[in-house]
Amino acid sequence: MRERIRVFIAACFYYSGLVKLAHWKIQRSGKMLIILNYHRAIGNNLRQQLHYLHRHYRILHLEKALEELYADQTNNACDRRIPLVLTFDDGYRDNYTHAFALARELQIPFTIFLIPCYSEHGSRFWWLEGDYLVKHAQVDNVTIEGRLYSLKRTEDQESLAQLIDTRLRHSSSVMERETYLESLRTSLNVSPTITREDELYSPLTWAEIYKMEESGLVSFGAHTSHHPVLSYLSDPEEVKCEVQESKEILEQKLNHPVNTFAYPIGKFEHFGEQGLQAVKEAGYKWALTTNEATNTPKTDPYLLNRLPGDIEQHWLVMASELVGLLGIVSRLRKNL
Questions:
Q1: pLDDT tens string 15-54
Q2: Longest C-alpha distance within the chain, in Å?
Q3: How far apart are alpha carbons 213 and 89 in whole angstroms?
């Protein structure tokens, strides 16, 4: 019911012309850039959202948009629409089957931030493992960390999934994380392999990545090699390795420089000063956070902001939110 009310209010804003007026005022407020942060691409709402954005915003390749943002001169092109960039983190296979299909249909670019080890091995993303392992467990009862879980009970399933996620997220090294995962798979009798039909858990393959890049519509940035939470790693050298190695692997695979990086999880507490310094030392030109704001020429190029892209959101709600007409505090007006 609450979402229906939001859609109704957003429709009133849109069809009354208020969205158009707010959009016009933002265009006149100065140089700025919106970067949207998606992950998954499944669902009809993404199609409707991209159709709206394609009509009302100037969708650019990430690097082109950033070069324009930080250029001394103002863009003199005839297209005065607000510049906007689409990004997808992690590299889910539906970025190929769904987002790429829409990109070709509408001829709009986007950027995917890849985790090379997952494309290399085709393994499940670790943050999906808690839910996956519990749902696919081949045992009825299991004792984990001294507690007995009865997996026929919904509350025990939820508790175990939460425990697994917390332990994986706070691992002090990638090896610790993977060792813990292996012990869980053994205890729950779950295979580490996934089928290509299991799209919910599938990462992109290199063949899919190459096909997208050949189109000229999709570009790629780095997202570490194994997606640890950088600030939780105990060894500073592992932080540097995760950041540097991902760049090196992608450059070798793609045969061109990789200049952009997205911090895993994305808030400062998740990468910290150590992660920030590692990105600079690795030679990236730009790095993206998940801080919810837009960007101006004064934005630190290693702390770029992104607004969340929500594939469950109605396009009318998105249209109103982007111009600050919904929400207690407008994300967009933080920089105006």
A1: 999 999 999 999 888 899 999 999 999 877 999 999 999 9
A2: 66
A3: 16
187 class by beta-carbon count within 10 Å (0-12 exposed, 13-18 middle, 19+ buried): middle
Instruction: Please name the residue that has the structure tokens 């919106």.
Output: 34
pLDDT tens sequence across 146-156 = 999 999 999 99
Would you state the pLDDT for residue 193?
A: 79
Are the CB atoms for 288 and 262 separated by under 8 Å?
yes
Dihedral of the alpha carbons of 142, 146, 147, 152, in degrees to the nearest 10: 0
Considering the chain, what is the average pLDDT of its residues? Answer: 92
Alpha-carbon span 4 to 228, nearest angstrom:
37
Instruction: Report the DSSP pairing between strands 141-144 and 147-150.
Output: antiparallel
In Å, how far are 10, 20, 27, 113, 279 from 17, measured between CA atoms?
Answer: 11, 5, 16, 36, 43
Under 8 Å between Cβ of 112 and 208:
no
Q: What is the pLDDT of residue 194?
A: 75
Query: What is the phi-psi region of residue 245: left when phi exceeds 0, alpha when psi lies from -120 to 50, beta otherwise?
Result: alpha
Q: Which two tokens stand for residue 218?
A: 């999709």
With tokens 């004064």, the residue in question is 298
Rg (CA), the chain: 21
Q: Which pair of structure tokens corresponds to residue 232?
A: 């939780």
